[in-house]
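Q&A FORM
Asked by: J.P.
Topic: structure of Alkene reductase

PROVIDED:
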Amino acid sequence: MTSLFEGFSLGELALPNRVVMAPMTRARVGADGLPTASTAAYYARRATAGLIITEGVQPSLLGQSNPNTPGLYNEAQVAAWRPVTSAVHTNGGRVFAQIMHGGRVGHPGVAGQHPVGPSAVALRGEVYVGSFGADGRQPAPVPRALSLKEVGGEVAVYADAARRAVSAGFDGVELHGANGYLIQQFLSSNANLRTDAYGGSVAGRIRFAVEAAEATADAIGAERVGIRLSPGGRVWDVVEDDVPGLYAALFDALAPLGLAYVHVVATGSDDLLVELRKSWPTAFIANPGGQIDETVGTREHGEHWLARGADLVSYGRAYLGNPDLVERFRTGAALRAVDRELWFQGGDSGYVD
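REPLIED BY: S.T.
REPLY: Here is the structure written out as tokens.
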């Protein structure tokens, strides 16, 4: 049986093991979106992962969702990421930047931009504005619906950010198509009420995701591009109709692009993920827990998904308190937990201490 500790070839990268550090928002940068020396220390300490995927990085001010998150939309940010990627590579690691456009999951109080979406439909709930926590939330505003011409512009920002990521030293990028952000908003049936080429039918709803992947692959090479998806996931009030049919069509449309991988959150049934795995020609990363089950983060969960056809397994929360997660899995050592209050509060406590 395949082991988590076996190597794997991901495009041109030779991964020493099949453990992936999943992307996780940490909210440790300032309003300028510049990563810091602590950012470099945080990722460098986790370089024994087969692959690190960073926290979501906004590709534009308009795409920023949460406060105190990093960007890749100007040269100052590119320069600030270089010490991070250099530190990971010096420690023997490999790192992809996750490009995350928040779409309607945003607020003018975060970046001074009114959020946009496929349609003028607000999510039901509150979004983070001044800080993380109950006192930093406000009701989600109604987004401005993107015009047909503007949709193409938002496709292009993924490719632009990918070029900057390569310039910053990243080994590749992951498009965030999961967890209710812009790509999944287009896939959805409640956030996307469009009747043009980007809505209505399944072919219309998957079009934005496919075009974003195509543009990014054209910009930096398909072997450097992955995409994260959460079939049927309902984070940030997203609803999808006919999940099996929607994602079968999306996988069929993405497969010819030759992307490095698809990264799938286990938000649907195990059987659905197994069927999707069968239809995917390159690497398949399974994320067992996503944002649903906080108990999923063990070696056994990873081996379960390898046995069901996954090539790689990503871990999120388990990496917060265990930068040496691969070695702990290898030796059977206990895992440390990090207090939830330290996840997003800023500073080095719960981050690099």
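FOLLOW-UP: The radius of gyration is 19 Å.
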